Amino acid sequence: MAVVAVKMPEPVVERAPIRRFELPDLDSRGAWLLERLGRAFLRPDENQLPTGTIHSGNLASFLKGSVYSNEFLFLLQEHSAAMAQVEYTGSLAPLAIVRERFVFVQYPENKDHIAEAAEFYVRFATWAKHLGAKAIVVAELYDVTQDLIREKLGRLFTRQMLFARV
To answer: What's 19-44+55-153's CATH class?
Structure first.
């Protein structure tokens, strides 16, 4: 009797779509997100610009205020959240730029969650184009590798900033 080997198709992993963060999401997803933001702001790197005193109440209020603001793009997926903000630089010739505020995953050791979060950069780029922005500042508070960011956005440029603590 002949035995026929049948190759089974690879399972397709469908990710939840990217959607805007809503106020009820603070109840369901806010705990891990506030914890990650707290770690980022309460233990800043010595090379970061200084920040004021921050506690979880400030962070929660900031997130609530950003949810429906047109100045922010606050996005959510199953295991990740991201925020970008439009800023206008230059006083004589204002120019819109989009600045990543954060791109976090719930479990940073999970490579699937990191790949999921990399898709936020595509949405940031689309939003920036609609705003007429000429640049997106990335890799400030993020869990995604720079290689994945580069894969989503193309060539990345570096600019050094000098500052003094006073």
So the answer is: alpha beta
